[in-house]
Automatic annotation (TrEMBL):
PANTHER family: THIOL:DISULFIDE INTERCHANGE PROTEIN DSBE
Organism: Streptomyces amritsarensis
Gene3D superfamilies linked: Glutaredoxin
Main location: other
Locations listed in the record: Cell envelope
UniProt-recorded name of the protein: Redoxin domain-containing protein
Length: 208
């Protein structure tokens, strides 16, 4: 005679723990280096359209205002992005531990310097995340010639300020371009070449 084993029932508390684990794993995937979005899919979502390059753009009348980011920079100075309204802002999320961030850093150093030298109405701001010390972040900036400021945000709290459903920087690296009114005009969740970076900035810079 064979005995069949009754299926084990998972207790309510066990199910809750499992769901919590899945949720946390999903959140970590979104914030992993390279992110959950490789930038390849095309289509639309909400108030924006994503092209084949992985760059998402929002028309002027459909843009969401970016939250103000403020705090201490990697070099210990105060910074508040609210003071930058009236200029086009390029916001780059990065970490010194992130290989794609290192890959795109020379393009950011070059483009930011050339636009500044040309007197263009654009400023670059970094958000350094998940670095355990400012020293690592400062070494990254020195190595790649990054001269613009970066907010030091080891816990990623600055990024939580972005509203759900907006073009938020939910991967590392991420790059946003804000228009002169402080609204999110473009975003990518993938590392950028010099050409791709300029393709994000130039249309917004040309707006009157």
């Amino acid at each position: 005679m064979s005995l069949s084993r009754a299926p084990r029932r998972r207790s309510p508390s066990g199910r809750a723990l499992l769901l919590t684990a899945v949720t946390v794993t999903g959140a970590l995937t979104l914030t992993a280096c390279g992110g959950s979005d490789s930038g390849k899919p095309t289509g639309s979502g909400g108030n924006y359209v994503t092209g084949a390059s992985g760059i998402s753009t929002a028309a002027e009348g459909e843009r969401v205002e970016a939250p103000g980011l403020d705090g201490e920079t990697v070099d210990g100075k105060p910074l508040d992005t609210a003071a930058l309204k009236g200029k086009v802002v390029v916001l780059n999320v990065w970490g010194s531990w992130c290989p794609p961030c290192r890959a795109e850093a020379p393009s950011f150093a070059k483009v930011s310097k050339e636009l500044a030298d040309a007197g263009k109405d654009v400023v670059f701001v970094g958000v350094n995340v998940r670095d355990n010390s400012k020293q690592n972040a400062a070494s990254f900036e020195e190595t790649f010639g990054i001269t613009y400021p970066s907010l030091y945000d080891p816990d990623g709290k600055q990024l939580l300020r972005f509203p759900k459903g907006s073009l938020s920087p939910n991967a590392i690296p991420s790059t946003l371009v804000l228009d002169r009114e402080g609204r999110i005009a473009a975003r990518t969740l993938a590392p950028l070449s010099e050409e791709q970076l300029r393709s994000m900035i130039d249309p917004v810079l040309a707006e009157q």
